[in-house]
Amino acid sequence: MNTTESISGLELKILDVKNKQQLEDYFYLLERQKEEQASGFEISEDYYNYSVLYEHIILAYVNDVPVGYTSGSKENKTFYVSMTYVVPEYRKNGIGRKLKERQEELAKRLGAESIETTVSKDNEASLRLQESSGFKLFPDSLRVSYKAVKKL
Q1: Domains of the chain, CATH where assigned
Q2: Which residues contact 36 (CB under 8 A, 6 or more apart)?
Q3: Which of 88, 89, 129, 130 could bond 148 through an S-S bridge, CB–CB 3.0 to 4.6 Å?
Q4: DSSP string covering 81-127, please?
Q5: Which sign, positive or negative, has the C-alpha torsion 1, 81, 25, 94?
Q6: CA distance 105 to 116
Q7: What are the tens digits of pLDDT across the range 83-93?
Q8: From first to last of its 152 residues, what are the pLDDT tens digits of the chain?
Q9: Beta pairing partners, 58
């Protein structure tokens, strides 16, 4: 499913990955994320293979340039979000929120009854987005991250 809309004066297109070029755009964004979070952030070859085979990947484009993605998979009645990323120069334009909305639509289409993700306690922007999107936050036992859960 493809959608195009104007948001914060930007022409935003959100789509499910369906072809090789879109998959290459996804890999490009993974590499951007890896470079940005170089301190300890590792994306292994196994993750690339796993995400391509088992995950639903949604991309965001502005003027046909890939600027963000979200990925996840459904297990039983829960949709688990693996990662969400928006390149720094496009943050604070509502793109992360639009990706989250699309993710929830996908989870419902797949028959999920809830959606879950894990957010670092230091990622304040993501924590705010989760809460404002109706997610309940539960601290992990070590208090280094939160499990964000929303019933659909």
Answers
A1: 2-151 (3.40.630.30)
A2: 88
A3: 130
A4: EEEEEE-GGGTTSSHHHHHHHHHHHHHHHTT-SEEEEEEETT-HHHH
A5: positive
A6: 14
A7: 899 999 999 99
A8: 788 888 888 888 988 888 889 989 988 898 888 777 665 556 666 666 666 667 899 999 999 999 999 999 999 999 999 889 999 999 999 999 999 999 999 999 999 999 999 998 888 889 999 999 999 999 988 878 899 999 99
A9: 16, 70
Q: Is the dihedral of CA 115, 75, 12, 88 positive or negative?
A: positive
d(CA 61, CA 113): 28
The model carries a pTM of 0.84
Task: Choose among 150, 110, 117: nearest CA to 133.
Answer: 150
Q: Which long-range contacts (CB under 8 A, 24 or more apart) does 99-103 make?
A: 99/14, 99/58, 99/60, 99/68, 99/69, 99/70, 100/70, 100/129, 100/133, 102/3, 102/14, 102/58, 102/70, 103/58, 103/70, 103/72, 103/79
Among the listed residues 105, 106, 23, 128, the one whose alpha carbon sits nearest the alpha carbon of residue 66: 23
Instruction: Please tell me whether residue 147 adopts helix, strand or coil conformation.
Output: strand
